[in-house]
């Protein structure tokens, strides 16, 4: 008897339901960091200055429904755009699925726990500031975000003693 494969392994991004699409977001907040583009090379450099609408503790947008109106340069992630958005971190589920790769153990769809993205050290929780206090974004450049942060190993399972 074969086990049913999860939707992200069997459904192309373009064919996912809205609910499936939204569930791919792991809640890391990395896409909400301000980024600078090198005019000469086109390289994207992440900063630790997050969009003012990012709830830094929850790693979720404070006004998700109106995000593109609130922040005109906020990118609305869509299946059609995914194959062109090379600035997304290597841990991003949208990017992983677009590249036919699997989700990591800490992704909430795999772990069943939205907290594992934080436990694994992937999210921006505790590592960023709001853009509201950041004057010169070049002073906030970081390297860890593009890779997705320092990934912690999966916690060992603990078994109850009999």
Q: Strand fraction band?
A: 5-15%
Principal-axes geometry comes out as globular
Structural class: alpha+beta
Q: How many helix segments?
A: 8
Helix residue percentage: 10-25%
Low-pLDDT regions: 156-162
Largest sheet: 3 strands, mixed
Order of the strands making up the biggest sheet: 1-2-5
From the N-terminal CA to the C-terminal CA, the straight-line distance is: 32 Å
SSE run: HHEEEEHHHHHEH
- In round numbers, the mean pLDDT is 88
Q: Write down the Rg.
A: 17 Å
Query: How many discrete structural domains?
Result: 1
Quantity of strands, as a count = 5
Features:
162 residues, 3-stranded mixed β-sheet, two-stranded antiparallel ribbon, 5 strands
Overview of the structural elements:
The protein is α+β, with helices and mostly antiparallel strands. The two termini are about 30 Å apart. Helices cover about 20% and strands about 10% of the residues. It is globular and about 55 Å long. It has one domain. A hairpin with a 4-residue loop joins strand 3 and strand 4. It has a three-stranded mixed beta sheet with strand order 1-2-5.
List the helices and strands and how they pair.
Layout: H1 7-10, H2 18-23, E1 33-37, E2 44-50, E3 54-55, E4 60-61, H3 67-70, H4 79-82, H5 93-98, H6 108-111, H7 116-119, E5 129-130, H8 144-147
Parallel strand pairs: 2-5
Antiparallel strand pairs: 1-2, 3-4
